Amino acid sequence: MALTRKFLSGMGLTTEQVDAIIDEHSETVDSLKEQRDNYKSDAEKLKKVQSDYGNLKKQVEDGTGDAAEWKEKYEKEHKAFDDYKKNAEHKAQVETIKEAYTKLLKDSGVSDKFIPLIIKGTDFSTMKLNDNGDLDEVDKLTENIKSEYGGLVTTTGTEGAGVETPPSGGSGTKYSSRAEIFKIDDTAKRQEAIKNNPELFN
Q1: What is the residue-averaged pLDDT of the chain?
Q2: Which residues contact 188 (CB under 8 A, 6 or more apart)?
Q3: pLDDT of res. 17
């Protein structure tokens, strides 16, 4: 049964009471209508969200549309970051190896003036660090240093000939590149070539 003024008046209520009840009832009805409209609007939004989600999910699965574009962009940027990180880590590792090898050359008695030349001509890709962060296979590297650069070792009371002034009687042969020098098989001749061509290692 509808709540009307006639119905309320029939219950013996005064005009003021009827007006108060009608006003209160109207506010309640308006509030309920507003809630209903909001629920309806939310339901429509939910349908759209569900639809958009379904479309996006399908795009991801099919590898199409905006989802594919964003996925490709993410993967490209992620790879670029990984490459940068690996490159930075590799450079840091090479610098650590260089420092350790420089120290090993000094500990092996190689003259300080020849160490920069040796460092520039050394391939560090074959050297590694152990789990402690130290140079790996130190004994083997030390033997190689003695074998390859034994003639460059500083001896007490003996001053080696200057790089700019090759030892008398030497061939004094000039080379066009470091690679050409390092191809020399004979250790003594290779060391002599390094002494006579310092400009290639500057």
Answers
A1: 76
A2: 151
A3: 80
Residue found by looking up tokens 């490709």 in the block: 72
Tell me if 54 is assigned to some domain.
no
pLDDT tens-digit readout, 167-176? 444 446 778 7
Close Cβ partners of 120 (under 8 Å, ≥ 6 residues apart): 178, 201
Provide the domain limits for residue 81.
66-154
Q: Give domain status of residue 112, yes or no.
A: yes
pTM, rounded to two decimals: 0.42
Q: Count other C-beta atoms under 10 Å from residue 44's C-beta.
A: 10
In a domain, 20, yes or no: no
Q: Answer whether 145's CB lies under 8 Å from 108's CB.
A: yes
Report the domain count for the chain: 1
| Residue 184 CB partners (closer than 8 Å, separation 6+) | 190, 193
